[in-house]
Design goal:
heterodimer; A: 323 residues; mainly alpha; MetI-like fold; 2 domains; three-stranded antiparallel β-sheet; 13 helices; 3 strands; flat; B: 373 residues; alpha+beta; Rossmann fold; OB fold (Dihydrolipoamide Acetyltransferase, E2P); six-stranded antiparallel β-sheet
Chain lengths: 323, 373
Amino acid sequence: MVCFHGDEGALMIKEKGKFKRATSSIGSIANLLNRESVFKIMLVTPMQLLLSFLLVPPFAIVIYLALVNWQPIFGSWTEAPFVGVSNFVRLFSDRQFFWALARTVVIVAISVSFQFILGMALALLFNREFHGKKVCVSVILYPMMLPWVVVGFIFYLLFLDHGPVNYVISSVFGPGATVSWFSSSVTALVAIILADIWQWTPFMFLMSYSALGAVPKELREAAMTLGANLWQIFRYVTFPTIKPVVLIALIIRALECFKIFDLIFIMTRGGPGVSTESMSLYIYRMGFRYGQLSFAAAVAIVVLVAISLVARIGVRPLLKEEL
Amino acid sequence: MENKLGPERNVLLSLKGVHKEFNGFVAVNRIDLDVYEGEFLCFLGPSGCGKTTTLRMIAGLETPTDGEIYLKGQRITHMPPQQRNIGFVFQNYALFWHMTVYDNLAFGLRIRRLSPKEIDRRIREVAERFELTDVLRKKATYLDLSSMQRVALARAILIEPYLLLLDEPLNNIRPGLRELMRADLKRMQRDLGCTMIYVTHDQEEAMTLGDRILVMNEGRVEQIGSPLEIYQQPVNLFVAGFIGRPPMNLIPVQYEVTAEQAWVVWKGYRWSVNSVKEQVEKSKPERGLVLGIRPEHVRLSPEGLGIPALVEVVQPLGRKDILVLKIEDTLLQAVVYGGAKVREGAIIWVEVPLRDAHLFSADTGRAVAHGIG
């Protein structure tokens, strides 16, 4: 490793973990740089500082807000009264909070599972050469590129009482079979989950597809010559080799889906009542509709901690695998 | 094809008119081949000659466009690879890198639903002979190349295949270790008595390993025979030029008959080829003949005898030197013993002994005669 130091151009040559000075010019600074640990820290510092400036202030503000009782109508947030953990106490006694949390978890679980299964199935289907493959792949990826709002609007129209979905249902099963999708929480959630699956299956497809493409075909062929059938090849050879990528994709998707807001906001506004409200919508309602920004901040902190814990658990097998 | 291994050997594998095209490109052109039980057969040819494709068709990884493949008398042309019980060692070994060596070895046995105890017994036994006992618990990713190669081989052998196919398995191994592993492989094949087909583009590998060698070029079989046969009696110009290093000198010559005497003539030098006159006439050489002489057969002769040649380059190899000689405008390679002390720029006298020479038809490229006189 060779690095040029400063304007003096003193050439440092790294040898056996230590810097030796080739040409001496600046005595003391060069000596300091000779210590490898100091040098490493100096390399990292600028980025670390930048990140800290970007991350620390918003965190600090959210924590501060959660510990005081401030609403915009009360005046300046710097003069808001300190209330300690009472926002958190109130939060843990709010049933709507737990319902929103449970609902979000259910949406994530169902939606991401389907995205994974469908995405993986599609990826396996596309893991061979055929005519028109490129066109098919770009068509499949299309939903992912649409803005949330557009997807929400499309599915809102699809599931309207006199929309295409009900039209198909009534022409197949008769007019009595139509469903008023947005008037009950379960059917509304089904519509929301379908929209999310439609939009984000392409993402799981893309990740699985590219991971599959990186598995040498010889691995599958070797398994074949050893007698493995297609399912055994997938189960014991292909899937384990792409597992790290798939796991990362699942984590990304789960974290994304946990924050689901736009789709629900467009399709149901959390209704009927608050029965399709996700965590984000709950925070939005508390903070912006009711103006209780301190309480919303407390919710945000709890959600953040919860998500970090879950993500940590999700990532752990991955780390173990790699190290 | 004559069975050189003795009449008691049974045909294990048969290819009958096997043909493979990829989008109109002929990769393998109507191959007929019998492979005998217990033999070590090498497919030898330049890259892209169709040898790997042939191997893959035998394993079932490719389906022939035409022709049939028989294993133990049973037609397997369209049988999926899973049911063939043919072992395959890939060029890059194709180890399951997320598994330990043990799991790699156990893979085929577990699919065959053997009891864990039996699997363990067999793995221990094979690991012992392949010197893999110490790395059984290691992940396959962390092995060195030679261990990877042994794991790949052991994994294929553990399923007790009828036939073992190897696709250039020593390609990635550094020279030196390569020769050792080659010897290992040969010894192991003898000990186990298993039938192997080994694909390589390295003639030295094919010559040292194979009981028989199949030389392929542009999808066709050029010649099948023992290494010595292929070296001594190449059937055509391709085999003659491909086998042997440095390659055989191929010199276009004229054929002349004067007063019942047959001669080949080159630059005013003439050699009597009376003894093979009949063969030459039968081949009706319109565009003349090609005289083939291996560099190791070109001999130095005392001054004034034979053909004078200018020594262009001397490539010393220690025990022997490779000389590039210039005779008028023709370059000729010769291998002489290092003791000869030939200097570049000198004029030396060489002799082309016809009993070691070959004659090919310039029209068809086919061999006309080997060893004249």
